[in-house]
Amino acid sequence: MLRSSGPRSGPSRSSSVHPIEPWDPGVHGAPTEFGFEDFPDDDPDLLDSWFMFEVPRRTEWLHGMVPKDTPRYGTTTSAPVDFVQVAIGDRPIGYVWADARGDAAGYEPRPAAGHAALDVAQDWLMFLGKARRRGLSARDALHEAIRWPGTDRSGTVVRDSLRTSCSVEDVQDLSGREYPSAHALP
Prior knowledge:
By secondary structure, this protein is an alpha+beta fold.
């Protein structure tokens, strides 16, 4: 194999060519017995960069479960968030959250709860949509959710579970963020 040290955007007339050595780390990873390993990064989030795609894709998929004309709060925020745990019986299935500014709110499913956590998303997102349609801030909608008796399908807010977090990402971390491959999204 040969590697060109010229530009990657196309052939170069002046590129020099030299053989690739199996122990050469290159620019994308270090060789291992089984292939290549990514170089470590100072930012732990970048060590597994795929998770950055998982949550936005899941959020988009969950919002696809409600009618398109359903009013929505923002789905991201840099403000602190209040959140509550949702359970069906004694089984925690997710979290409903709202940001401190009142502009964003959502539902974060717990992957450990399996598909039940995804199934109830529609109920909680519809609940938030109805609150938005009535003009409630995201925080007011969250406090209304605390009092909502829920349904057998949606579950209910766990009593005294209201907490504050520095970011919605912390709530996503608490939820478990990613689904194991056995529970992958369609």
